[in-house]
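Progress report, Aim 2. The chain analyzed during this reporting quarter is listed below.
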Amino acid sequence: MDDSKDFQGPMAGSQADEAEAIARLLRLAGPRPGVPIDREARLRAGVRDHWIASVRRQQRLRWAVWTSASVAAASLLIVIAAMRGWRLLDFLPLSGTTVATVLQVEGFQGVPSSGVPAAGADLKSRAVLTTGSGDRMALRMRGGAVVRLDHATSLRLITASTIDLDSGAVYIDSGPGGNAASSLEIRTRLGIVRDVGTQFQVRVDPDGIQVSVREGVARLERAGASHDATAGIELSLGNDGALTSRTIPSTGGSWDWILGLAPTFQLEGRPLGEYLEWVGRETGLRIEFQDASLEADAKPVILHGSIDGLRPEESLAAVLPTCGMTHAIEDGSLIIQRGSQESSPP
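Predicted structure tokens for the chain:
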């Protein structure tokens, strides 16, 4: 005998009686009138408006959360950039814009070291350049300034007018007289160096930075203050912020390394005066003549031949004797003299 069926029987019967009673009441009540069409339309429109408003609230909430997060991230990036001396341009995708061209490489014996492109190569924005202990190179920036890299130098080209110098030394020649298009900004860990139509070098070492000026003016900016260095002045800024200055010669010593990277002067068909001007600018020597009559006779002389492969100071011994002249270097001056009868050209 199944006790569970006996127990459930009365319960099932009671539920059936209740369902039958409800059905009789519904039949007695008869059909209810339908909802008027206009009322149904209003209900549907109200439900739809409520749904649209709810969706828009959710969208606004998501947008607010995303915007807040983006603003917070951007603010944090700006704060970090300000603390580290970065610029937001550093984080933009590479544009592929050429900012410089390699003019010359030195010391590679035909096989450039890692990270050093060959002469003639175009360099893009934010390209990183590194020279080894025996390597040097020269670049021409898009604005016209020439940049020379010494041994063991590491830098990044941010734009055609901005360079990040991490270590080593660079020599800048932005042309005589000042040119806004060729003016450069050299950024270092201790400050920013700007030029005003000048020749100067910036060296970064573990103890600090040095800014040495041969011609024109270079401006060192740090912590809201600026310090100008004129020709013959070297500024030294230590890691502790201490700034000192001293006078330096415009030739020899710390300038010698740049001469191997001097651009070649095309001698053929050019006047002697232009050649001597090039020698003076590259060596830092003042050009003087033995007397005024020699200067008047010498400058228009037309030169022939080539000095390819010779440093500016080396080329003097090859060029001047062919013009019946000699030279002497005294106290930072290159003195052009009349040659002896034996040295004069036939």
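The chain has three domains: 37-84, 98-255, 264-338. Residues 4-8, 77-94, 342-346 have pLDDT under 50 and may be disordered. These observations will guide the mutagenesis work planned for the next reporting period.
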